Amino acid sequence: MLDRSLLDPGGRLQLVGHRGGASGNELHGLRADLRDAFADDAPTIELVDTADAVDADLVVMIAGATVSTDPGANVDRAALAATNRAMFEQYADALAARPGPAPLVIVQSNPVELGVAVFAERLGRHRVVGAGAWSDTLRFRREIADGLGVRRNAVHAAMIGQHGDHLVPVWSRVRVDGVEDAVLQAWLAGQRQGRTVSGLPAELVAERGRLLAMVAAGDVAGAFAAVAELPADLRAALKPFLVHYTAGHTTEIVTAHSVVDLIAVAMRGDDVLRPLQVRLDGEVEGLSGVLGVPVLFGPAGWQWHSPPAIEDDERQAMLTSAAAIAVVTGIGPGPLAG
After folding, report:
1. Element housing 272 (H / E)
2. N or C: where does the chain have the smaller number of CB atoms within 10 Å of the terminal CB?
């Protein structure tokens, strides 16, 4: 954010840590480093360590527990959701209690959909978005670009649904500038190879198990070579797991890039179309709940934008994704009464 000069010297940036936790101490060093690096045009940088001290027009929720970096460890998503729900509620309640308009909130912490649900309930659904669908989309576009030998900005594609195993690649809407349609369609057919979008979650589980077994056995190079041979949608979904389990931390650079993209949009003034997790109220298939879908996003939050039609298997996968998300959030996914 500072590197892109999104905040002018008269602005204010709050770094929020956890009182009594490691981040409460680490932020002192981070602030000193940021001041040295951006001394010419840095905004005022404040440190706060309680939820009620957060005072901002734009809040990025990017903290929280994550899964173990041990490839052999059990992934307890229920425990992760319970831990981070308490954090989401603490900060959402504090922000809701502040006087004045509700801030715009971008959620990247996991489970993204749970964070969106909690903040939307307290601050208003149009003021809260989840960045997971956008980071998934950036990865998907990159894999398509790599396969076709073009730059990512030439690729028009989206991932919707859940930021997790039930993500939905919208193959039917893929377009690539500078690539003839016949060439593109032949490449897409090779990627799909008779596979259905509804079958992607099972593929992800199987391939993730295979790749992580390779990592656990010490064959990291082999795992990355193996994932490179998979179709673009599987590569986009599985590479973050390999990074997490081999680098010792989550995909920090992609996460930062996708979130700062959204911050730039929120501060620029023009609404743009982005796939984001939002709290729906009947806009899609009558669903009530959180789902990753294309919406218009800008300084005032998100607005509904009716997207082009998608294929039936993509639609069915989207509905399955909504049902999976509802298990975590406790909202929806069924049609609204009446």
Report:
1. strand 272-281
2. C
